[in-house]
Specification:
519 residues, mainly alpha, 3 domains, 23 helices
Length: 519
């Protein structure tokens, strides 16, 4: 057993041991509750107090109803999609078999799972509710009105969390019966975040709230939002803001909307229990053998394009393995969706510089998703290549070729689509933007491949993978912003391209050396 470490703070020494952490654990709930109470009572009002006048003016405006509806709707979607995404990204069917072998009903198992994560989600609910109660308190709401506002958040988001837990459990039982189903689940778990991101970007752009607050806006969208429980709570909050301390003036709206939220929560619990008892189970897993087909025209052309021979066969084999996994394709689709949403809601068409800045950061993330397979598949795959003559060098070259084949056409197509909506841009300028971003995307492939070889991430759930995925956009955005400040906008693009290539080549050389030392 490893000896405990001693830490010096001031003149005293402290020893951190596992037993010491366990001694603190019983007091964690009380500590968390105390900090949350401090946040609700003092910190949130202090933060909101700095812009009280603007907040009050907003709450009494016509745009408040639409904006609060959208805020609650986006958080409502997040509370549904996040547990589903969490389950689908890591379907552990063996763990489910152990749970279901216990002498309990499936509905009891699902309720236990829901209650187990409830305290952690409750922290987020308290934080959100604290901000809103701090916003409406200066209006002079009564104690009962404030309590109802808090309960609106509790009922709305706990209902969404329960629906997400049920949906994730049902999908896990259906998709976890085969390797193909688990791959489909991982793909869905990644793409399911796009609707939430779309609503967030639409709110940040300001267009959606403006349209909904306009009396002449599309009645279909407003009616659809009005049917959701999140909109019932939003209308109740704005009703209380318009009638502070006078709940009798809106007693009918309070009864119908708050009562509807309560009934929705109870109905979702009942329906989830019934569905769990019927569908939350395991069936006999069927096994099927895959049959390899002869290469088609695409793979034959790809083999010839990279030079043919043993290297061409290796590139085709890596490309096949990458394309067969829907999780990989979903990651590419996710980045493409994010770029489209950014350009639709956040970037002005008359400012190509914003497109350049957003695109160059996300193309780095796309490159990381594509070439990260070099180590994410595990050490065993690396050891197989090590046994072949010059296997490690061929692996690096093949991964580099595969990364360029996937990333560069996507970068060119997305950049061309972005520039197509820019008014009065010359064809020569458009080709220049496309060329710069394609060359930059090629540099990002080299850079990210070098990072993954230098800091191997043998699992996409490990800390190394998360660190690399955070470093790449920060490095790209930081270098571009710094060069824009120091050199000006005209020279920042070429400077970032040259810098990215130099750093990428350096990291790739160091990473290739580190690859030979992995044991």
């Amino acid at each position: 057993m490893q000896a405990p470490k001693w830490y010096v703070i001031g003149k005293n020494q402290y020893r951190l041991t596992l037993s010491g952490v366990r001694e603190v654990r019983p007091y964690f709930p009380y500590l968390a509750i105390g900090l949350l109470a401090l946040y609700v009572a003092y910190l949130a009002p202090a933060i909101v107090g700095s812009f009280t006048d603007e907040a009050l003016e907003f709450l009494l405006s016509q745009a408040a109803v639409a904006t609060i509806q959208l805020i609650l709707f986006s958080i409502f979607l997040w509370f549904i999609f996040f547990p589903v995404s969490l389950v689908l990204r890591d379907i552990q069917i063996s763990q489910l078999e152990i749970f279901l072998s216990a002498p309990v009903k499936p509905s009891h198992l699902l309720l236990g799972e829901f209650l187990g994560v409830l305290p952690f989600y409750a922290i987020g609910v308290v934080v959100i509710a604290g901000v809103f109660t701090a916003l409406v308190n200066p209006l002079g709401l009564g104690v009962l009105q404030t309590a109802i506002v808090v309960m609106v958040f509790v009922l709305t988001f706990f209902s969404a969390l329960w629906l997400g837990t049920v949906a994730g459990a049902l999908l896990r039982t259906k998709l976890g019966q085969s390797d193909r189903g688990r791959d489909i689940g991982k793909a869905i778990g990644f793409l399911i975040a796009l609707p939430v991101v779309a609503v967030m970007y639409a709110m940040m752009g300001g267009g959606l709230a403006t349209v909904l607050s306009d009396p002449g806006a599309s009645g279909l969208v407003r009616s659809a939002l009005g049917l959701l429980p999140s909109s019932w709570g939003a209308r109740l909050i704005t009703d209380f803001a318009a009638n502070p301390g006078n709940i009798s003036a809106v007693w009918f709206e309070t009864l119908t909307r708050f009562g509807g939220l309560t009934l929705f929560f109870l109905a979702s619990l009942w329906l989830g229990v019934k569905l769990a008892d019927r569908a939350y189970n395991l069936e006999t897993t069927s096994f099927s053998a895959a049959k390899a087909k002869s290469d088609g025209a695409f793979y034959n052309a790809l083999r010839s394009f990279v030079g043919g021979g043993a290297f061409g066969t290796l590139v085709v084999s890596i490309f096949k393995d990458y394309g067969r996994r829907l999780q990989n394709l979903s990651r590419v689709g996710y980045i493409m969706g994010i770029i489209v949403l950014i350009n639709v809601f956040l970037v002005r068409p008359d400012e190509p510089f914003g497109m350049f800045l957003m695109g160059q950061a996300l193309f780095g993330v796309l490159a990381a998703f594509v070439v990260g397979e070099v180590t994410v598949r595990g050490k065993e795959c690396l050891f197989i290549y090590r046994k072949a003559p010059r296997g490690e060098s061929r692996l690096v070259k093949a991964r580099l070729a595969q990364g360029w084949i996937v990333t560069l056409p996507i970068a060119a197509a997305l950049t061309a689509a972005q520039l197509a909506i820019v008014p009065r841009i010359s064809p020569l300028a458009a080709l220049g933007y496309i060329a710069v971003l394609v060359v930059l995307a090629a540099a990002y492939v080299v850079l990210t491949l070098g990072l993954f070889l230098l800091m191997p991430a043998f699992s996409d759930k490990g800390g190394e993978f998360g660190v690399i995925m955070m470093v790449i956009p920060m490095l790209s955005l930081g270098s571009f912003i710094a060069s824009d400040i120091l050199l000006g906008r005209a020279w920042s693009g070429p400077f970032v391209v040259v810098l990215s290539w130099l750093v990428g080549i350096l990291l790739l050389v160091l990473g290739k050396r580190n690859l030979g030392r992995i044991e």
